Amino acid sequence: MIKLENIHKYYDSQHVLKGIDLIVNKGEVVAILGPSGSGKSTLLRCINFLEQPTRGIVEISDKRVDAESASKADISSLRNSTGMVFQQYNLFKNFTVLQNVMIGLTSVKKIHKAEAKKMSLEILERVGLTNRLNHYPSQLSGGQQQRVGIARALALNPEVLLFDEPTSSLDPELVDEVLTTIKKVASEGNTMLIVTHELNFARDISDRVIFMEDGVIIEEGTPEQIFNHPKVERTKQFLGKAIRAK
Amino acid sequence: MENLLDINFLIESIPAIVSRLPITIGIAVGSLILSLFIGVATALIKIYRVPVLRVISSIYVSFIRGTPLLVQIYLVFYGIPKIIYYLQIQYGWLQSADVNSIPPEVYALVAFSVNLGAYLSETIRSAIESVDRGQFEAAKSIGMTPAQMMLKIIFPQALAVAIPNLGNMFISTIKDTSLVFIIGVIDIMGQAKILGSRGLAFFEVYIGVSIVYWILCIAVERLLVLIEKRARRYERGIAS
Ligand SMILES: Nc1ncnc2c1ncn2[C@@H]1O[C@H](COP(=O)(O)OP(=O)(O)OP(=O)(O)O)[C@@H](O)[C@H]1O
Ligand SMILES: [Mg+2]
Q: What are the CA-CA distances from residue B105 to residues B110, B213, B217 (Å)?
């Protein structure tokens, strides 16, 4: 389970997150929607402290970390229990596909090489990339790179997977293979937080949808509630516009 | 008949010059390795804006860049023994060091490392900063420690970027080692001088030694091309 309490983030004087409270239960898939600049990425990045929240508490499976007194050990514990999938994939360019997935196991979890390799192969099998093990990221399509990104995040068996617009950099024809992979990962019972602009995907995959604007969560509910009966005017507008734009 | 060159003398001098090649290469390679540590340390100090050290390291870089190498070699050669001696007399430190038994090669190594380190500092800093931010973030996101991130992800990528520059500086250093004779190191240049004065045939030995430098530098350039290829193999290549 992951729990955020009153998360605030300032960039200098700019108040980007204005007191976010959120609970994601084990196995739950939560989609985060909202207009550009509303703080979605910042929120995800505050969970693993890629951005240090200015205030607030991040709790992941009973490990409570107060942003104002977080130690290095606290931060590394949060990072060990989260996996992140980036919009730009961010695969380690100097590593092959297999090495990208193995590195977390061998150097962070200190698992023996042979065992780590076995585990990595299993995960790569799940994302359908066992035929590209010795390729470098530069030799893969965007879709393949992102599937490796997902495998790398899965490898550490994190409590929660954080996706920040995982398909936004992809050519349209490559989006589906990644969405399919993410759906598969979701169906395996992983806890996931997904920032996405793919509304249909969000509706299909999530148990709950959160709508953010200007640093606050202004509405949340099941996909059915949010997409079919949004209560807040702003959500209606956004979804209406986004759906019309399709 | 008067000859322009004593070809025989030239040819005979070459093996003797080459016999001192290990000294030249040793000082160049040794100081490259030491200066990489200095360069990385000062680059990281600058990138992470470490207080105090940052000021010290920028003064160091500025001083080295603003003074002739020849002067720096003299400073090291005359300065280090004096400092050691002072520490012995004044504080009783370093009692086991015998200043007179330090071979001149050590001073040469120190001087060249300190010199090259300052020049590498900027190259290494900009190479590290050229690595995509996403690489840092991905490394952090999987829980790597800063040291693991640097050693496994960032340095290898930075190195690939920096190699052409590092290579040029290394080649300059090889040529600059010809100065070490002034503090009594007998490198290939020193050997040439000795042979020249012995046979009173300076033109011949300097032609000889320049051929040796030239071939050495060509060989190093070739080697650098291979190293660069290997370091950048992940950028676009044939999958193995
Ligand atoms: N490193 C930073 N320094 C200063 N301001 C930042 C930084 N990162 C984000 N911001 C600001 O914080 C606000 C929220 O940004 P964020 O990236 O979280 O939005 P987002 O909802 O993810 O938008 P998008 O849909 O465009 O990705 C924006 O106004 C942005 O300019
Ligand atoms: Mg964003």
A: 9, 19, 21
